[in-house]
Amino acid sequence: MNTSAQGLRVLVTAGAAGIGRAIAQTFAVNGARVHICDVDQTALETSARERPDISRSLADVSQVEDVERLFADVKLQFGGLDVLVNNAGIAGPTAKVEDIQPADWERCIAVDLNGMFYCTRLAMPLLKANGRERGGSVINLSSVAGRLGFGMRTPYAAAKWGVVGFTKSLAIEAGPDGIRVNCIQPGDVEGERIERVIKAKAAAFGVTPDQQKQTLLDTISLRTFVSAQDIANMALFLATEAGRHISGQALSVCGDKQRAI
Fold first, then answer.
1. In this predicted structure, what is the pLDDT of residue 36?
2. How many other CB atoms sit within 10 Å of the CB of residue 209?
3. Which of 10, 127, 177, 180 is deepest in the core (most CB within 10 A)?
């Protein structure tokens, strides 16, 4: 199975930490030239020290002007693009819908869905310029929240369902140009983010964080969280020769999560 990324030019949004960091480093280790963006200057500085071979931009994907500057940087670095990984996203508020403030809803949709559009609209001309034979790949990060729905997380779930529709529609549109479009639906990914969600839901339900964590694990057939590296491995597969005939798919990496809580 050929998962070499040798020679690929890859952009990973929110690539300085978490899942994005794992994806960026996995592509780089497998031979790609990688550019990342992030809103966290400190995380970008850490990335620069750890992986000076990965170029970077400070950018908030929910801001059109930032995305335009980001793509100017990508063109300067690479002269083109082969792979876009739309990874940027935020968890959004944990509350009943009547208790969610409009500003919190709008911020979640702005980052998790609008930002994906802003990046993709500028990536497509670069990917099309490769010609049908070389083609390209767009990988969008959805979530099992875009398959199951998450109570008390309506902004996040709405955005992640939107990502699936965006992905499937774009795959139809871009396929004749040799561009594959897929989305990954991570389950509960180990790390600080899921711990914050567990604490918020524990408080909402009046239980301890340990009780809430066990309840969460009980919804997963394998009774385990997935890792950022698991997600990165799927992204590499989709973007390389191994995944050359996969497009228009929403692929869960979740340990078989059965229901949301």
1. 98
2. 14
3. 10
Residue 205's pLDDT is 87
Beta-carbon contacts of residue 83 (< 8 Å; ≥ 6 apart):
5, 8, 9, 10, 11, 27, 32, 136, 137, 138, 139, 239
What pLDDT shows up at residue 98? 97
Q: What is the SS3 string spanning 131-151? A: HHHHCEEEEEECCCHHHHCCC
Strands (E), 72-112: 83-86
156 included as an active-site residue: yes
Domains of the chain with CATH codes = 9-189+226-253 (3.40.50.720)
The reported pTM is 0.95
Q: What angle do CA 48, 18, 249 make, to 5 degrees?
A: 120
Residues of the chain with pLDDT under 70: none
- From the candidates 78, 156, 225, 237, give the one annotated as an active-site residue: 156
